[in-house]
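Tokens as discussed.
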């Protein structure tokens, strides 16, 4: 049975209008969703890691070149004198040091953040000192510095570094092991540099021990903040953008990395 022409026309007009509006809304919502996703992408952080196995002998030093551009950023040195032994960091850049005594470097633990929240001091000859062992007499030896750990030494601890490149600040770390054979003697058995790294994004903190990764990996969005997404239920605009937009809608703000020494 043939339907009346008027009803057929009205049905066609309603359907065409609805679909036209829906298509226009979906296109606008998709564009908005794509734009939001583009803004949500964090700036790619790149950590440049240089493996090493350098044994620093007494009265010798080694230049650490974080950018591998031929310029020494920090010099790791070892000295010895009558009744004393020490390890130091010197150069034109800053070293993470103790707040209460900036002459001594902080022995940073793996996983800790190295950034502006740290206390950095401009290094000079023989300072900051990593470890010092001195004997006032044959039976009394005093160890100072976190890398000395009271005469026990440390394994795979990190020296936090801040340096300037092209007028911008970068953060890095150097992994160091200091072995003290006998805490009752003012002598260091071994000083080993086993690698170093820096963050290529200016001003961005680096995690001690981290050799690769992106901005999301360390949970720090100082230079790559994601836009705030409304907490309301998913709207047609997000649905029109497809599953990628839904993932943005569901995403929660990441918790900051806990800073530890």
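Sequence:
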């Amino acid at each position: 049975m043939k339907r009346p022409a008027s009803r057929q026309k009205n049905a066609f007009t309603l359907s065409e209008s609805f679909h036209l509006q829906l298509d226009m809304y979906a296109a606008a919502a998709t564009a908005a969703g794509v734009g939001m996703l583009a803004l949500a992408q964090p700036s790619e952080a790149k950590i440049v890691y240089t493996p090493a196995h350098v044994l620093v002998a007494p009265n010798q030093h080694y230049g650490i070149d974080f950018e591998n551009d031929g310029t020494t950023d920090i010099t790791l040195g070892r000295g010895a004198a009558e009744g004393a032994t020490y390890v130091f960091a010197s150069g034109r850049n800053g070293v993470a040091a103790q707040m209460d005594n900036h002459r001594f470097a902080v022995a940073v633990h793996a996983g800790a953040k190295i950034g502006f929240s740290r206390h950095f001091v401009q290094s000079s000859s023989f300072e900051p000192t990593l470890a010092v062992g001195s004997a006032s007499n044959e039976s009394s030896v005093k160890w100072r510095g976190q890398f000395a750990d009271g005469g026990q030494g440390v394994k795979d601890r990190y020296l936090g570094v801040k340096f300037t490149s092209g007028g911008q600040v970068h953060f890095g770390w150097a992994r160091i092991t200091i072995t003290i054979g006998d805490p009752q003697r003012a002598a260091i058995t071994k000083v080993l540099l086993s690698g170093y790294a820096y963050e290529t994004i200016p001003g961005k903190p680096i995690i001690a021990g981290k050799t690769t990764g992106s901005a999301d990996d360390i949970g720090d969005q100082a230079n790559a903040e994601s836009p705030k997404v409304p907490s309301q239920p998913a709207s047609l605009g997000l649905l029109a953008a497809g599953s990628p937009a839904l993932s943005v809608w569901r995403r929660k703000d990441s918790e900051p990395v806990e800073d530890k020494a």
